[in-house]
């Protein structure tokens, strides 16, 4: 019964929302969960027959499947998108998901590296090797631009506009954004391109990828993870570090320096300002620690 609605929803996500294939599949999986629940209830309700109470029972059911609060919230978000589509297409007259409560998600503040710690990690690179020169360019770019690991491994030469200090980044959902790039990152990208990459035999279809493996193909995300983990150990840093830590550090240092939150949102490619606001919490912790460390009132015994 729901198949035709799912097909229409899929087309809407692809054409109207311009979502990536992975995102579309995630949304369809959310709706599939709802139809699975209705089948278990031996219900033959069409989308227009579902009411708030049905969705509340569905939320209770997924909660009993031992899903995390974030997974439950993700599914509810998918259901809300489905009913937004139904409302726009006049399949329903009233959206039953409007008053649906979402489980509260406890936001875990990520580990952040100080500028000195980032410098210490980068200092452990052996710049006398081809890999070291490439990795220097990678890490400088990640910290300079706040890129996701997927964005850095897929960065294309045709997306570099270094003469004006910008790069074009393809982010989540294939959404593009222009991000400023720092002088150090530009310097080491040029060194890598002109002294290392130019001597490589590049595999077909990988000619436009900036950062290449020794086999002439694009790097994997896990390779970036291993590079950063290895350098962190050599630098004696015990924090829980991943490629995303460089992105968190980029954003935190901007907020600590007084950057406008909307500008940070745009550079990170966050769809919602709410996601970016986590860095204001990090900033408050930084300010509190600074106050306790340096204010005379806190130094009294």
Q: Mind describing the biggest β-sheet?
A: 3 strands, antiparallel
Mean pLDDT: 86
Secondary structural class: mainly alpha
Q: What share of the residues lie within helices? A: 40-55%
- Our Rg estimate from Cα atoms comes to 24 Å
CATH homologous superfamily annotation of the largest domain? Intergrase catalytic core
Low-confidence stretches: none
SSE pattern, N- to C-terminal: HHHHHHHEEEHHHHHH
Give the CATH topology of the largest domain.
hpI Integrase, Chain A
**Architecture of the largest domain in CATH?**
Orthogonal Bundle
Basic shape: elongated
Sheet with most strands: strand arrangement: 1-2-3
- Give the helix tally: 13
CATH class of the largest domain: Mainly Alpha
* Terminal Cα span: 72 Å
Q: How many β-strand runs?
A: 3
Number of domains: 2
Task: Describe the protein's architecture and organization.
The chain is elongated and about 70 Å long. It is built from 13 helices and 3 strands, in the order H-H-H-H-H-H-H-E-E-E-H-H-H-H-H-H. It has a 3-stranded antiparallel β-sheet with strand order 1-2-3. It starts with a helix and ends in a 7-residue tail after the last helix. It folds into 2 domains: 3-88, Orthogonal Bundle (DNA polymerase, domain 1); 115-292, Orthogonal Bundle (hpI Integrase, Chain A). It has 301 residues and is mainly α. A hairpin with a 5-residue loop joins strand 2 (166-170) and strand 3. 55% of the residues lie in helices and 4% in strands.
């Amino acid at each position: 019964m729901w198949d035709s609605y799912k097909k229409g929803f899929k087309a809407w996500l692809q054409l109207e929302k311009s979502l990536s294939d992975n995102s579309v599949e995630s949304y369809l999986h959310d709706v599939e969960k709802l139809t699975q629940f209705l089948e278990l209830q031996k219900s033959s309700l069409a989308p227009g027959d579902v009411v708030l109470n049905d969705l509340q029972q569905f939320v209770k059911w997924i909660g009993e499947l031992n899903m995390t609060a974030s997974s439950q919230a993700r599914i509810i978000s998918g259901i809300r998108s489905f009913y937004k589509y139904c409302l726009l297409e006049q399949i329903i007259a009233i959206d039953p998901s409007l008053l649906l409560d979402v489980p509260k998600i406890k936001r875990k503040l990520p580990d952040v590296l100080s500028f000195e710690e980032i410098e210490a990690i980068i200092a452990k690179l052996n710049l006398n090797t081809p890999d070291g020169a490439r990795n220097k360019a990678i890490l400088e770019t990640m910290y300079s631009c706040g890129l996701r690991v997927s964005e850095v491994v897929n960065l294309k030469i045709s997306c570099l506009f270094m003469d004006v200090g910008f790069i074009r980044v393809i982010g989540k959902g294939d959404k593009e954004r222009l991000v400023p790039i720092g002088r150090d990152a530009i310097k080491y990208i040029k060194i890598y391109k002109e002294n290392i990459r130019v001597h490589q035999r590049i595999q077909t279809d990988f000619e436009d990828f900036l950062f290449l493996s020794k086999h002439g193909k694009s790097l994997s995300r896990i390779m970036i993870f291993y590079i950063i983990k290895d350098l962190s150990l050599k630098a004696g840093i015990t924090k829980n570090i991943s490629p995303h830590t460089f992105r968190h550090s980029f954003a935190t240092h901007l907020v600590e320096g007084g950057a406008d939150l909307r500008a940070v949102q745009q550079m990170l490619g966050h769809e919602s300002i709410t996601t970016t606001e986590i860095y204001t919490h990090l900033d408050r912790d930084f300010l509190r620690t600074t106050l306790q460390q340096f204010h005379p009132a806190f130094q009294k015994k």
